[in-house]
Amino acid sequence: MNAPFREALAWLRFAGLNTLRNRRRSLVTVSIAALGTAAILLAGGFALYTYQGLAQMSARSTGHLILARPAQFQRDEDVPLQHGLDDAAALTRTLLADEHVRQVLPRVEFSGLISNGDKSTVMMAVGIDADAEFAVKGPFVTVQSGRVLATARDGRPTLAVMLGTGLARSLKAQPGSSLTLLASTTEGALNALDVSVSGVISTGVPELDQRLVYTDVATAQKLLVTQRVSSLGIFLDRMDATDPARERLAAGLHGLELQTWVQQAAFYRSVKELYNRIFGALGLIIGVIVVFVVTNAMAMAIIERTREIGTLRALGTLPGQMLQTLALEGMVLGGAGALIGALVALGVSVMLLIVPVEMPPPPGRSSGYPLQIAIDPALYAGTLVAMVLLATLASAWVARRTVRTPVVEALAHV
């Protein structure tokens, strides 16, 4: 062990012993620093978990990348699939050649009417590759009754649909019920198709469930009298491959546009912006409180020890060494509080994994979600470093004038 390191340890030990001279005050300071650290980590972990959940939901809904004609993203259509893709099969083969692409799923989006014979209502329909689409969506779609839509092996229309819970309730439909879809074809004529209800699903968004109809791509194309699809959803092997894959794939697609799931996820962007502001302000307030408490504790300690500081100065201790010792005391207090707070936050996060807690449905949704706190190493490291730095700098700022007080004046302090 070299001499500078031994000297640093000696100063640190000296600072630690000084914090124990008034144990009650040090305990209060450490407790508040611990509570502040735990609050920041728990709030930040909750926000990160929310971002991760919404990101997964958005990516599984649209695909990590969405391929369509530029007009599909920019303008409304006069007739269904006016800006659709003609050569979806060839594009799919091209995209699947990329090593990071796992699935390419076509989507046919259209609107129209759905009727049970007595009542007709507006529908927002989506033609999908049913087998792959529901496997990708996973837990983000709940089958309330019936069975999941299936794609015919020979590619023929199945003439089956899945309804959102609100729409099924409105039409008094249940699995096995017969309904009629009405929509404009790509030529502008009105077409109708009799279908049967395969199942009823819930997306967790009541407004969407009031209008949602899923059918297979072949049935949608038969109703619209076309072979086009609206877009292709490209699913990658991992989230962080999105931007590199977009640059790589876009180079070989001329006259088409690739958008990422973030560009399509307005809800995700809104929630993230809102949470960043809320939790950013919360973290700032907690940080100010911790700095204020540490500053106050150190100010009281320095005032009480002014004569002691004068004595140490008279014995030859330099102002810089005194400033270093007092700053180290703040670092010890802030560091101990930050470490305890991190352990508390980690314990709460692990406990929520063992004992699940269900949160009530947020505004605009019909189902709750599990309360979980993300354990992010970068968040923990950043918060700990910030707390230690703030406590150290606050202590140094409070001590800077006292350590430079003339020795005679410091010794005469009452």
TrEMBL record:
Entry's transmembrane regions: 27-51, 278-303, 331-357, 377-399
Keyword terms: Cell membrane, Membrane, Transmembrane, Transmembrane helix
Subcellular location: Cell membrane
Domain of life (superkingdom): Bacteria
Entries under Pfam families matching the protein: FtsX, MacB_PCD
InterPro entries cross-referenced by the UniProt entry: ABC3_permease_C (IPR003838), Lipoprotein-release_system (IPR051447), MacB_PCD (IPR025857)
Main subcellular location: membrane
The ABC3 transporter permease C-terminal domain, residue ranges: 282-406
Boundaries of every MacB-like periplasmic core domain copy: 26-250
Membrane topology: Multi-pass membrane protein
Family as reported in the entry's similarity comment: Belongs to the ABC-4 integral membrane protein family. LolC/E subfamily.
Protein's name according to its UniProt entry: ABC transporter permease
Originating species: Sphaerotilus microaerophilus
